[in-house]
Fold this sequence. Notes:
This protein is mainly α. The chain has helices spanning 2-13, 18-32, 41-47, 56-69, 73-84, 90-106, 109-126, 131-142, 152-161, 165-171, 173-194, 205-219, 221-230, 236-255, 258-293, 296-305, 311-326, 331-348, 353-367, 375-384, 388-411, 414-423. Helix 3 (41-47) packs across helix 15 (258-293) and helix 6 packs parallel to helix 8 (131-142).
Amino acid sequence: MLILLTSLFILLVIGMPIAYALGFSALCYFLIEQPALIGILPQRLFAGINNYALISLPLFILMGLVMNSGGITHRLLDLAMFFVGRFKGGLGHVNVVGSMIFGGISGSSASDTASIGSVLIPEMKRRGYPTHVAAGITVASSTMGMIIPPSVPMVIYAIVAQESVGQLFLGGVIPGIMIGLLQLVIVWWVATRHGYPTEDAPFTVREGVRQVRRSAIVAIMPILIVGSVVFGIATPTETAGLAVAYGILIGLFIVGLTVVTDLPKVMRSAIITSSKIMMIIAFSQLYIWVLALERVPDQLAAFMLSFDLGPTAFIVVIAIVILIAGTFIDVSPAILLLTPVLLPAAQSVGISGVQLGVVMVSGLAVGACTPPVGNCLNVCAAIARLGIGEIFVGAAPFLLANVIVLFLICLFPQLVLWVPSLFF
């Protein structure tokens, strides 16, 4: 284990991509400790990605990109403006509500940051918001993209943990909504203190009907996706494919043939993003195999049981570990590395795999907005042209909502498990 961890740390410090770092550190272990097993490594590498459920990943990613290129962002923001624009700090509220809606469509926090941020950050700056505050709200609110269903990280966790995708999707509903509501409260408090403006958004029945009619066909997409999985109408993979087709049709309906002409570029982007995740999954399988050979999950479970911690105390400890790990490891590799280690130990004390999955994704969502690795920070830095440190300072008050909800779902498992129990 010393070889494994030391080599991985050194490779990450010198800047090697996480996928190759995982593969080389596992190779170092086998060269020194298990040279007879070297010939099996290619088989293990390909076995890690030979999983039918993984087909849904590139399709969900493509779905989010298609919806983004289909010109829907402005419609969703107009809908959010109608409901919350008239409150103090109106554009901040629009940012949060827009992320709640868009996160349920894209399944990705980075896509949320890019789509919402490119529209709202310049407008918020023009209306008197400091740049780091506008960027901070954008980054913090984008975390709901990986918690509110559908969620790409939850699909990855479901594959690794062999849990139900439908239950995980439903388990993220209440935590995601709670984070959004708490962030709205914080935006109002910050806006009141600093005198950020309200927006001139007409609140009439006629305007409400108009905005709902313009956006309903887009806003119901998360319900269709989750519903088809939960009620067994389609598998997650089939649902992802149908969602891509639905996104193309919506794009044609809203912006016309531009969606079709942009499709090759969008598909190329989806292929590149999916390939990065697939490479991480493949190389992580070697790393996970080493952990299994060294019986690390069993030893960790026995070690934690020796402290005689109850389920609540145990999952609080896990949440703290996830928050720390998320600052140094990106979301996908963190799920692939932590799940095989933490899941057996959690189940040994009676913690549901679904609760652990939602806790893990919620905790890593905070890490996506935390230096030095934070993926959402880097996306936002390119849009706002600020350093990631300044953006994190602006995001910190709003990320407090995420941390509060994270520990609430640790203390009260039914916040995660109640909705899935209604359908499963």
